[in-house]
Amino acid sequence: MASLNTVTYPSDPADPRVRTLGELAVDYALSHGLVMKPAADGAQLSNAAGLAVHAPLALFPSPFPRAGFERALTIQPHLNRLFDRIAADDEFLETYLSSLIKADEFTRRLYDLYRVDRETPRNQRQTAVMGFHRSDYLLHAPDGQLSTAQTIQQVEFNTVSVSFASLGQVTTDFHRAIVLMVVQPNERNIYDQRFVEYELQTKHNINLVRLTVAEVTQKVKLDSANHAMVNGQEVAVIYYRWGYSPDDYNCEEDWTARGLLERSWAIKCPNIAYQLAGTKKVQEVLSRPGALERFIDEPAVCQQLRDCFTGLYPMDSSPAGRQAVAQALESPENFVMKPQREGGGNNIYGTDIPGVLRHMNESEQEAHILMDLIRPPKVHNLLIRNGELHHGPVISELGIFGAWLSDEDGTVHINETRGHLLRTKVESSNEGGIAAGFGVIDSPLLI
Ligand code: ADP
Ligand code: MG
Ligand code: MG
């Protein structure tokens, strides 16, 4: 038996009770649509054969301190507002992203699209912005033990391609318009996306069209007034589940398609400014003294947000940057190094950092940030993947969803906290993404 402060779970995968529960969990997942496409090169085969597997999940809810969970819910509307203000702040984005775009082609191309958007007069472009965000947290526990007093530390704030909890009210204004979801080819997480489609159809009578970027190139045209038209219908909202990684852009046509969508009248979720505001660089800048105050007037709110920030450092030629790099070389085990990328699997951890730095020139280094390594508490749980149970000390990452809809004139239509996601991974893995194959879906047992 593994003790978890307040609860005790069985831990032996061979325990007959555990095996029975594991079978029930898999049946539950399969019959409730908690499913994904199978992994591997069989993607095409599985599309044809209609195969699905259960999404990896935790057998028991992992314990999570109630106070930290509630803090994360409370600050979400402030974070939604903060990122809207950042995205609207030309000078801020230009100042802090200009150094990145020298070394990072991907960020530069996004930034070029942003400039086109900003240089278009207001009456010729869409000024409404829609955000669907997820702010991610780990608990910090240097001794590795879970305690109810532990504070949450923000891992990152995601503005692009966040899985949808509910489009719900956000789109009630757009009846009989259609929503365009831009997706990756051979998406394994298709059922998460289908939920959105069915909800929109049955509850709101809105059609959703899923297209890959290659299909966007073929099927989406701008009319003379820049309405994005597909099959003779105007697209009201574009929801990106694609476009956050350089791998998503395979050819020049893919960038052209992104530019076309950005220029259209459709409301983008997110628009390009939001995507840039969600970069790791911006997260680092926000942790500097006075940075939050540029966007938020209330000192108490700034304090609440700052309480969740762990140490973040530039890797540029500023004195702070030089000092941070020197520290990372001296005690790399305390740091994570991050490029401006999304989707998991891109970070450089601990003792790998010095070796990687040796092969980088200055401007490549500058396109990264350094972050203190958060050491989350380990708890015991059983994880089920492909029908198999694994016991292990595990680590949980809490994500809080935020929904936002506003206009550039300052009107905020929606600013809400919309649910949560707990992702759990075995302690030995650095990364926690579910689609990336590292983590499982869990739910918090508040303690
Ligand atoms: P991505 O945008 O690719 O998801 P993240 O910043 O979320 O990038 O990093 C991916 C994963 O790496 C996180 O889910 C977490 O498990 C781990 N990680 C990131 N930053 C830290 C940190 N400072 N301390 C400990 N683990 C971290
Ligand atoms: Mg991310
Ligand atoms: Mg992440």
Number of domains: 3
The stretches of 5 or more residues where confidence is low (pLDDT under 50) are 164-175
> How many strands, which pairing sense, and closed or not: the largest β-sheet?
7 strands, antiparallel
Helical amount? 25-40%
How far from one another are the termini?
19 Å
Q: What is the overall number of helices?
A: 15
Q: Shape from CA axes?
A: globular
- How many strand units? 23
* Residues in β-strands, percent: 25-35%
Structural class based on helices, strands and sheet pairing: alpha+beta
Word description of this protein:
By secondary structure, the chain is an alpha+beta fold. It folds into 3 domains: 2-58, no CATH class; 64-309 and 395-446, Rossmann fold (3-Layer(aba) Sandwich); 311-373, Dna Ligase, domain 1 (2-Layer Sandwich), CATH 3.30.1490.50. The chain is 35% helix and 28% strand. The chain contains 15 helices and 23 strands. It has helices at 16-31, 43-49, 66-87, 90-103, 105-119, 190-204, 213-219, 252-263, 272-277, 280-286, 291-295, 299-307, 319-330, 353-358, 362-366, and strands at residues 2-4, 7-9, 35-36, 53-54, 57-58, 62-64, 128-139, 152-158, 178-183, 207-212, 221-222, 228-230, 233-240, 267-269, 312-314, 335-339, 348-349, 368-372, 379-385, 388-407, 412-426, 439-442, 444-446. Strands 5, 7, 8, 19, 20, 21 and 22 form a 7-stranded antiparallel sheet that branches. Strands 9, 10, 11, 12, 13 and 14 form a 6-stranded mixed sheet that branches. A 4-stranded antiparallel sheet has the order 15-18-16-17, sandwiched between helices. Helix 8 links the parallel strand 13 and strand 14. The longest helix is centred in the first third of the chain and has 22 residues, at 66-87. The radius of gyration is 22 Å and the shape is globular. The two termini are 19 Å apart. Bound molecules: adenosine-5'-diphosphate and magnesium ion (2 copies).
